[in-house]
Amino acid sequence: MELNDISYKIIGCVYKVHTELGPGLLESSYEVCLAHELLKEGLKVERQKSLPVVYDGIKLDAGYRIDLLVENLIILELKSVDEIAPIHKAQLMTYLKLSGLKLGLLLNFNVLDMKKGINRIVM
Length: 123
Description:
two-stranded antiparallel ribbon, 7 strands
């Protein structure tokens, strides 16, 4: 399955979760529900996947966690905030850099229109 096909399935699941739950819940609620929907779509999903930092040639566990990793290809960073700040985008870009992956979706569920809550980041 191609990256765009996976991304399309993910966004469909995002809309489904947002339509069902609406805005205003904790990030963890959206995470568990989105993981469930992605699994129903037949996608491989890992929650709270550890992301080590490579420093001085050594992999170090610095406590970073990817909210959702889909098909070992796409990082999903979930938020439930009033508005996405530049630091949120920088965080996802750093996760992409550390992981060597190319595509991430920054998803803010605390919006009335989910279209405004989806930010696609490509490295």
